[in-house]
Amino acid sequence: xxxxxxxxxxxxxxxxxxxxxxxxxxxxxxxxxxxxxxxxxxxxxxxxxxxxxxxxxxxxxxxxxxxxxxxxxxxxxxxxxxxxxxxxxxxxxxxxxxxxxxxxxxxxxxxxxxxxxxxxxxxxxxxxxxxxxxxxxxxxxxxxxxxxxxxxxxxxxxxxxxxxxxxxxxxxxxxxxxxxxxxxxxxxxxx
Length: 191
Prior knowledge:
Elements: H1 3-16, E1 33-34, E2 40-44, H2 49-54, H3 61-72, E3 81-84, H4 98-115, E4 119-123, H5 125-132, H6 138-141, E5 144-148, E6 151-156, H7 159-164, H8 169-185
Helix pairs in contact: 1-4
């Protein structure tokens, strides 16, 4: 069965999910979007208000910055896969709780298994924690790549943090330039 069909079926399961309290206030689930064969997958922490309304990840100001940074390195947003650790908006845009991330983990793991990205980019500390556990801290890994369980990762800041801390923009662009280099030189599992 084609990967896109399997992702569509997974999205339908996500839309019906009631595994944690986040489902009670959602307008839409935000499973993620992008290519089914994306070489780069971006993982944020959770949908915000605009994402909840549209059912799409990173469509607000953070998404505009993410799209801009991708364009700066010659990548179109449609070429990558963009998702979050949780698929429903946490109230007031708070950080997802560990139990909420754990409830969504099977969906995120299924997306990764289907897409088989060359590189996973974690956007911010909650995404890094969700993907890699407490072994890696953002302050120690930001701007660097590493391999965990055979998967190539790159840690950087969440775009919303960069929007609040404008002085980081030049470093953020350098991170994206490195993301492109790492993805181009990276490997795909099973090859």
